[in-house]
Write a structure and sequence with these properties.
Blueprint (H helix, E strand, L loop, with lengths): L3 E8 L3 H10 L4 E7 L4 E8 L2 E8 L2 H4 L6 H9 L5 E8 L3 H10 L4 E10 L5 E9 L10 E5 L3 H9 L7 E11 L3 H12 L7 E3 L4 E6 L5 E6 L3 H10 L3 E9 L3 E5 L2 E5 L2
Parallel strand pairs: 1-4, 5-8, 9-12, 13-15
Antiparallel strand pairs: 1-5, 2-3, 3-4, 6-7, 7-8, 9-13, 10-11, 11-12, 14-15
Length: 265
């Protein structure tokens, strides 16, 4: 299954406020656009083809009516005044083939769902997504996205948006808090057809961790009974909690709207 990390979604109480705060840390966060049919809007930070999305509610009443988009339903259910990372997407260049492969593995698929938004310069972006029917009490399984434009056309456009004052930032690792490391790794390796790295102890976050290597952004699953992992599990359950980015001019760590960021040189 040829998949790449596409983007991490932050459920934001105010994407514009997040944009201003992150700009002060040297991350180039830009206005995205409005999703007219879902009642949402976003701001975005690009790291070549990978990016982070701060997704907010523009029309709660409309968003509450959405039944075919699990991401919007999750945003409505988990929306708080504080914010947190909610879910991420993996990219495919053949949605139909991917759905067939997932169905052969006995996953129940919802979609594909068509999506679109207009950029600030008037360009109409289009994509389609599919979701796996899953228990959101555990770490939500990824949703899958296929863009309506080939990567060769997208790359130069996104390269122009991937310049940051903090440096030529590259999305390296997305850390996810889970209750049972072994169960989670088994579940995700089956889904993604990848081999995990060896488990290890990360003293900086006081947790036992294990990595899945994904093109465009690795996934690191972490389990711990104290510290940041324990706090994440207690506050929001099994969710992503930390993004690690390389090639910063100056190492730093900070928190914005309930999400942790780590810049490495």
């Amino acid at each position: 299954m040829q998949l790449s990390f596409d983007h991490l979604v932050h459920f934001s109480p105010n994407p514009i406020s997040a944009q201003k705060e992150l700009n002060e840390y040297g991350m180039n966060v830009i206005k995205g656009g409005i999703h007219e049919k879902w009642g949402t809007f976003n701001t975005l930070a690009y790291f070549n083809l990978s990016y982070i999305e701060w997704l907010g509610l523009r029309d709660l009443a409309l968003a509450q009516t959405i039944t075919d988009n699990d991401l919007i339903q999750q945003l409505v259910n988990e929306h708080t005044p504080f914010g947190h990372f909610g879910r991420f997407a993996l990219r495919t260049d053949d949605m139909d083939l991917l759905i067939n492969e997932l169905q052969r593995k006995n996953y129940t698929i919802k979609g594909p769902v068509e999506g679109s938004r207009q950029t600030s310069d008037g360009e109409q972006l289009q994509w389609k997504m599919c979701f796996i029917e899953d228990d959101l009490d555990s770490l939500p399984l990824p949703f899958f996205i296929e863009w309506g434009e080939l990567e060769e056309k997208r790359k130069p456009k996104l390269a122009a948006l991937s310049s940051h004052q903090a440096g030529q930032l590259q999305l390296k690792n997305i850390y996810c808090a889970v209750h049972n490391l072994e169960e989670s790794i088994n579940k995700w390796t089956k889904l993604l057809d990848v081999r995990p790295g060896e488990s290890y102890r990360d003293s900086s976050i006081n947790a036992c961790c294990q990595k899945l290597h994904i093109n465009g952004g690795n996934l690191i699953f972490c389990s711990g009974t104290q510290g940041i992992v324990h706090d994440t599990l207690k506050k929001v359950g099994e969710r992503p909690f930390l993004v690690e980015l390389d090639h910063a001019l100056t190492p730093q760590q900070f928190t914005v709207q309930g999400a942790f960021f780590k810049f490495n040189k």
